[in-house]
Amino acid sequence: MKNVDNYYQEDLLLLSSTLSKLLKQRFGKGPETCYVTLHSNRLVIFIKKYITPAEAVLLKNNNVSLLQKFRSAVMEEVFTEFGKEAHDCLGISFDSYYDDWNFKRNTGIMILENSGSKEWLETTVPPTIRENLFNGIISVSEEIYKVPSRVEIIRMNQNMYAVECREPLIQIEKVLYRKGHIELLQERSNDIKNSFIKQKEVFESIFTTVVEDIFMIWDYKNDRSYIFFYLQ
């Protein structure tokens, strides 16, 4: 396995190109932007302007549920192929995949993980941002959801921060997941994410810059969630 500190930027550029080609093969259209970041044995990928003409019709007709089903089914196939390519390139095995899509903004985020790598490498986060972002996450969680048992803040790159929340699930969500009611969980996830988006100005004051996107990803199996802030 390559040391995370010593990986070559060319590897990530190659993976970006590879993923764009796979998406074009599967969807008939590749993304305009595909930016790959490697951090703590995780690949985090920001994608922009990817929606196909067929998906645009579904979105126009407000068939978001069908759109999510279609994209999720195809992306599972993409992950299988791309995960092998990433392993060959980086020497890291990826056995878990999550994504979140903002169809209205035509942006999305993907994360590939290795189940054996649960911890994050320490990153330099300005103390003021760390404290205020932590308080902001707790404040929104208290108001609309549940306060997680642990919150970890990671600076992925100059444009992206990730927040990992441990044990954010309430009991009913665990039951819904065990029974396979993924659509209900997706609706709830969208509601929670929208609550964070409504507080975008608060987070912009924390980062002192424009927050272009807020993404939210759920790992129901391991009772975790991620919030990604993509900055201008």
Overview in brief:
The chain is α+β, with helices and mostly antiparallel strands and 232 residues long.
Q: What this model shows, in words?
A:
- The chain is of the alpha+beta class and 232 residues long.
- It folds into two domains: 4-113, 2-Layer Sandwich (Threonyl-tRNA Synthetase, Chain A, domain 2); 127-231, Threonyl-tRNA Synthetase, Chain A, domain 2, CATH 3.30.980.
- It has seven helices and eight strands.
- The strands form two sheets. Strands 1-2-4-3 form a four-stranded antiparallel sheet, with helices on one face. A four-stranded antiparallel sheet has the order 5-6-8-7, with helices on one face.
- The longest helix has 27 residues, at 64-90.
- It is globular.
Relative strand content: 25-35%
The largest pleated sheet is described as:
4 strands, antiparallel
Unreliable residue runs: 1-6
- The number of domains is 2
* DSSP summary: helix tally: 7
Distance between the termini: 33 Å
Q: What is the CATH architecture term of the largest domain?
A: 2-Layer Sandwich
Overall 3D shape = globular
The CATH class of the largest domain is: Alpha Beta
CATH topology of the largest domain: Threonyl-tRNA Synthetase, Chain A, domain 2
Q: What is the count of β-strands?
A: 8
| Average pLDDT reading | 92
The ordered H/E elements are: HEEHHEEHEEHHHEE
Q: Over all CA atoms, what is the radius of gyration?
A: 17 Å
